[in-house]
Write a structure and sequence with these properties.
three-stranded antiparallel beta sheet; five-stranded antiparallel beta sheet; 8 strands; alpha+beta
């Protein structure tokens, strides 16, 4: 009886491992639809215009002025920033044809293997749902390309952006946040200089599926 029970446990463990592997390698539902090139250019320009509005308000002595950014505007700005990061020094480029960014993305503090090095990150995309920020990207883990999905609360503290995760998925497999949050926060701390808000931005938050930024 013990032999049979051990065998059943072994088979169950193997089955669970296979299922977990399949879920890890499975592409999850996208958090947002990729933008076409014309939409990227238009939304990135809108993003820049709104940041300039904050600066103009501050220059005129208006404290607490705010702008609201859509997920499309933020995604487009990310595409352009990531494309610039991927180019050799001295090169320049226009936006790509989707919300995917080619090449490495070492400037993304939430990316890839949270434990080591500067992983390659592709197809990064964002969305906002209520007061939650959602991020998704393709990265290289243990010799394979896998999708990572993050969801959580985006905010600010002492002039820096903060992120408190509420969901973490590798592929289609959800990982308990408690297992990854410490490592994630450590990684964010290591990349803190990249989370510094622009000088004219006093705070940010997610509200009604938009980023709300206020000036100082």
């Amino acid at each position: 009886m013990k032999f049979k029970l051990d065998r059943v446990i072994s088979i169950a463990t193997l089955t669970a491992s296979v299922v977990a592997l399949v879920l890890v390698l499975k592409k999850p539902e996208p958090v947002a639809t990729p933008l076409p090139a014309p939409a990227i250019a238009a939304n990135a320009q809108s993003f820049q215009n709104k940041l300039e509005q904050l600066e103009q308000a501050r220059a005129q002595g208006q404290s607490g002025a705010e702008v609201r950014l859509t997920a499309q505007e933020v995604a487009a700005a990310l595409v352009q920033a990531q494309a610039s990061d991927a180019l050799p020094t001295g090169s320049s480029s226009e936006a790509g044809d989707s919300t995917s960014a080619p090449g490495d993305n070492s400037s993304n503090p939430l990316s890839g293997d949270l434990g080591a090095g500067e992983p390659t990150v592709k197809n990064y995309n964002v969305n906002f749902d209520g007061d939650l920020a959602q991020g998704q990207f393709l990265t290289h883990i243990a010799g394979r390309d896998v999708w990572v999905t993050l969801e959580g609360h985006l905010g600010s503290r002492d002039g820096y952006a903060t992120f408190e995760p509420t969901k973490f998925k590798i592929g289609d497999l959800e990982i308990p946040v408690s297992l990854v949050n410490d490592q994630l926060q450590k990684r964010l701390l290591e990349q803190r200089d990249r989370l510094k808000l622009p000088e004219n931005v006093g705070s940010l938050r997610i509200e009604n599926s938009e980023v709300v930024m206020t000036n100082k």
